[in-house]
Amino acid sequence: MHTIPAMTTVALGITLALAGCNQAPADATNHNAPAPRQQADALVAKLTLDEKLSLLSGPGYGPGAAPINLKHDVAGVAGYINGVHRPQDGIDIPTIKLADGPAGLRINASRDNDPASYYATAWPIGSLLASSWDVDLVRQVGTAIGEEMQQYGVDLLLAPGMNIQRNPLNGRNFEYYSEDPLVTGKMGAAMVSGVQSQGVGATIKHFFGNNSETNRHDIDDLGEARTFREIYLRGFQIAIDDAHPWAIMTSYNKVNGTYVNERRDALQQILRDEWHFDGLVMSDWFAGDVKTAPQRQVMAGQDLIEPGNAKPLLQEALKRGELSEAQINEAASRILAKVIKSPSYRRQTPNNQPDLTAHARLSRLAGAESMVLLRNERNALPLASNSRVASFGVNQINTYKGGTGSGDVNAAKTVNIADGLAGRFHVNQELQRYYRAFYASHKVFHEGKFGARGHYTCEEAALDATLESLISSAAQQQEVAVISIGRQAGEGADRTDSKGDYRLNDAEMQLIERVSAAFHSAGKKVVVVLNVNGVIDTSWSNKVDGVVLAYMAGQETGNALADVLSGAINPSGKLTQTFPTNYASVPSSTTFPGRDENGDGKPDRIDYNEGIYVGYRYYSTFGKAVAYPFGFGLSYTRFDYGEPRVVSNRLDEQGNLILSATITNSGQVSGREAAQVYIAAPQGTLSKPAIELKAFAKTALLAPGSAEQLTFTIPASLLASFAPQRNAWIIEPGSYRAYIAPSSDIHGITPVTFTVAKELVVSHTTPGALALPAGVAAKAVTTLTP
User: Fold this and answer.
1) What does the pLDDT average to over 321-338?
2) Which of 567, 526, 553, 525 lies closest to 371 in space, CA to CA?
3) In terms of CATH, what superfamily is 51-339?
């Protein structure tokens, strides 16, 4: 094993390069002026009813959009908030520009009659960023995205995506962070904080239950209130508490029979009254009964209906008395309170000069720091820099930087895996030529959806005499084989448990088997790289020596992967979703993506049958085997966990529980470790999962033999469970066990214990909120119980 270069200098260089990004742009607003909401209220008082209704209704979608008072357009944005222009009365509110951005700012790279290019950085997808378990790194990425927004003149980012990865087949999982709400909330908060440090806004989405894409406009999520509060809402609450996003976007789906954007219990009672959210609430594009009854969205507490055409119907509802002018005023004020903070309102002129070079370096670092080493038998990795590598698989040419749909980014280039490997190692050129030619003649183009560019896919090359010969010669000439496996998916459709999707197809399996046989016969190693959008079957992994989960690392995917394979960066990523033994073992596999109840050939209802037992909560509670557990990830070094202890227990005062542990690098090379805290709560009046993640932290880069004491703070609010019969969040009395561990596999970990002497009521909630529809029994929906 060769020495791994220290990463401190690389990280320092990127931090210095981004120093200018960390300062919010100059704000022309008088700091002695009233607060934004007071300013907004004063403005609304001056507006006509027509002007206020224009604020509530977006101006349209695509080339035909005609926003009111647009000062500087940005080609490719997803939508706008109308402005108001009445100069004779001193009212000049500019249009606000909204852009997609789960993996980076999505705008057009080209503009009419303009020879310049306006590229943005394509960052690692949400699932990969979260795998870093590094909130500081995610905040840096958010800061860089915010700087690109500010430079290009975009006011509000329609990201991050914060839905729970309930089922591995959700086609949009790549945008989301985790199956766990704590990871989701903390990563979302870090992204929001970074973006908004640049004087622009972020929008957390999709609130809530958008955990599948099939028939997403009409699917009805049925679940118990505790299920939604503990799993699907908690991440949003954490992000709001920690980062105060400017906006939140409601989801397409229904929850318990009613569209989310028409649920006053969700938008007003939970979001605003319980959580004290003070931002604006917008719809997803064309969501709900927008063509017939958009007034119900405003009545429920939604402020902005996108992308528009709702104004005439709102006027009619006002005349009928269904909608009041007071409700319109409230929505308009909440919108303007954020508009007032925007660059467009502050008359900032876009410079169109983001530091894309520095951002590419950060994207590369973020991708490499987040990749997960799943398998490393016989120290197959890292590879020496002078290694002779045989690279197999068409995915090395057709490398995916990110998923499809609104999560796509118009980057200047994507470094594919073939080129990334060639920049680090001596690669087999004959194999490279073979796969480039195969891709050129077999690639298939897919038209883009939702305003995104199209993309190519290519089936794996079948074993034939030519490929057999290449494998045989490579096994004699090269020292290691690297096989790239790719999967693409995106917005608007879910994946399937089939060959070529969740499972490997025949050509891929044959490639792995034939390459492994040839290289192992020659005493050489085989490594598989997964350039995938989400969880796939890994039952084949014992056939190879190494497996690296690269997910989709953005425009620098090839370089980031080469950094990990070479040991230039010691992988420290860990899974934020469980890899099951097979799809049938997933607790929601029997209900996803729903069932067809009206005979139209599309699913209408999806039961959240597993309740709160999502992901690792299910596998640990029910004692089910997994392929790779939540929180798992290997390193090129070893870490010891020592001196776990309870530093402070002030839970009885509804304060915090503070734990600590010392992490020591007991290996031979420098590395970082993401430590996790799992709590086993007593089973009282509420059934609880065997363990639940309640805190995590990541060490600095530790040299061999060095150590760091990590501290974990768990507030009472995060330790509490929801008691639906009490309409309250409570901490039940008893003895608790805390496992400070490298993953959710806590076998062999000695816990520390703490006691809660009496029941603690952390907070009260809205009675009856999110109740199941009349006539639907909980036991008919939640069928999986301990």
Assistant:
1) 97
2) 553
3) Glycoside hydrolase, family 3, N-terminal domain (3.20.20.300)
